[in-house]
Amino acid sequence: MALQPVRHGGEEAVTMARTPPSTVTPVRLWRWRRNPLRRHSDVVEAWIILATWVAAVLCGAGAGLVAAHSAESSYSARRAQVHEVPAVLTEDAARTSASGTGYDDGRVWATVRWTDPRGKVHTDRAKVVPGEPAGSRVAAWTNSAGRIVSPPIAGAAADLQAALTGALVAPSAGAAVWLAGWGVRARLIRRRMAEWDEEWKQIGPRWGNLSGGRG
């Protein structure tokens, strides 16, 4: 808003002329630019922010890859500890599963019989397809002690589980590094505020004298 003279019948009248407001361009990354208000602590803070983001991304990605590799190694180790054996159903399998949990895979428990490599006959309960009649041949998985165990995760299922494990670990690791960096930044800000308080204790009285006691 500016004052401009306007003539009316030989007299000048002052009217308010509207001027377009100036556009204020926000200064981005001001900590990296030279300006009289920038302090050494501002530059340090800028480097802390940059290092925090870079470390969070790298550490998150690295932790995710390590977790995925560890999961895959665990699945491989378990596959090496169990083996598949041919078994025979000794009873008719139920037609429906009695389990009502969300982890039900649709199969039912039934008694099976198999013979180990040494010729010893074993009997145990294993999960089979519902409705299988007695005498049906099924596949069972056993451990080194000859006990029925759940099938190992293999193939695409193992790859998917390993990938999901890495995807869950990566954000957590990145967030931990990010929080650590922000903690360092918070300490720097508190230190800066304390320095400002000390400087104001020295400058404040002189500022009041220069402003006639109104500052």
Tell me what the structure shows.
There is one protein chain. The chain has 215 residues and is α+β, with helices and mostly antiparallel strands. Helix content is 46%, strand content 21%. It contains two helices and seven strands; from the N terminus they run ββαβββββα. The strands form two sheets. It has a five-stranded antiparallel β-sheet with strand order 5-4-3-6-7. Strands 1-2 form a two-stranded antiparallel ribbon. α1 packs antiparallel against α2. It is rod-shaped.
Which secondary structure elements does this structure contain, and how are they paired or packed?
Blueprint: E1 2-8, E2 11-17, H1 40-81, E3 83-89, E4 108-115, E5 121-128, E6 137-142, E7 148-149, H2 155-210
Antiparallel strand pairs: 1-2, 3-4, 3-6, 4-5, 6-7
What is the end-to-end distance? 29 Å
Low-confidence stretches: 1-6, 8-17, 19-27
Order of helices and strands: EEHEEEEEH
Strand order of the largest sheet: 5-4-3-6-7
Principal-axis shape: rod-shaped
The average pLDDT is 79
